[in-house]
Design goal:
By secondary structure, the chain is of the alpha+beta class. The chain is 37% helix and 28% strand. The longest helix has 85 residues, at 10-94.
């Protein structure tokens, strides 16, 4: 055993120094490993953050897609409701009670038509033009049934046709005068008719008319056009009423 002057064992000190160097080396290795691990964690954290950002972007895109689907669904529901309303409109138009009217015996008031009346309306044509309008429905003629809010002329049955040439019968509606209603473009419908024979009155049955609905309480007029001035047409009118 070799001793220093103060009696310290030189071999033990040397061994302690070697052990310390080994420990330092181990610590350096551990530190390097730790640095590597930290770098790996940082890399993983960056990847996780990137994944989170991707998920957030996907969630935002999904939210936008859901909003679009909701918008489309709302539009589809509205479309279905509109189709259903149209179907109900057609249904109520074709499966409805028809009220037939002739002319009232006194048109001086607000009742111009008589339900189930046997006296026809009578109108004269102009000279290859429409003649003077006649009263068909007055403001008190509708509604016929309580609770009905709209109506339209649905059918027309020609009683007599003076000329053998074609006629146009036009209906106009409004709350004011005929002239004002015509200026507003309130033409409900027009129908054409021709004598079935030179001596026959008409077609022998009622003609269907496609007409728009108008609020109950409005007036309705009719006028006739023919190439012959003053040619007379007589007819009855069938009307439909609607709740809305």
């Amino acid at each position: 055993m070799v001793l220093f002057r103060d009696g310290v064992d030189q071999t033990a000190v040397k061994n302690d120094i070697i052990a310390m160097q080994t420990d330092v080396t181990s610590i350096q290795v551990d530190t390097t490993t730790l640095i590597t691990d930290v770098a790996s964690v940082q890399t993983d954290t960056t990847a996780i953050m990137s994944d989170v950002a991707t998920l957030q972007a996907d969630a935002t895109s999904l939210t936008a897609d859901v909003a679009l689907v909701q918008t489309d669904a709302t539009s589809l529901i509205a479309g279905v409701a509109a189709v259903q309303a149209d179907v109900e409109t057609v249904e109520s138009h074709h499966h409805n009670q028809t009220h037939w009217f002739g002319i009232s015996g006194d048109q001086s008031g607000n009742n111009w038509a008589l339900e189930n009346g046997l006296a026809p309306f009578s109108a004269n044509s102009g000279n290859d033009d429409f003649g003077t309008e006649i009263k068909v429905f007055g403001p008190d003629d509708t509604p016929v049934l309580a609770g009905m809010t709209q109506f339209d002329p649905r059918r027309i049955m020609f009683n007599t046709l003076q000329a053998t040439t074609a006629y146009v019968v036009q209906f106009v509606w409004g709350s004011g005068t005929f002239a004002a209603s015509l200026d507003l473009g309130n033409q409900m419908t027009a129908t054409m008719v021709l004598k079935s024979t030179a001596t026959g009155a008409g077609r022998g049955g009622s003609e269907e008319m496609e007409s728009l609905r108008v609020p109950a309480g409005n007036k309705v007029w009719a006028r006739v056009k023919n190439v012959t001035n003053g040619s007379t047409v007589t007819f009855f009118v069938g009307m439909h009423e609607y709740v809305e």
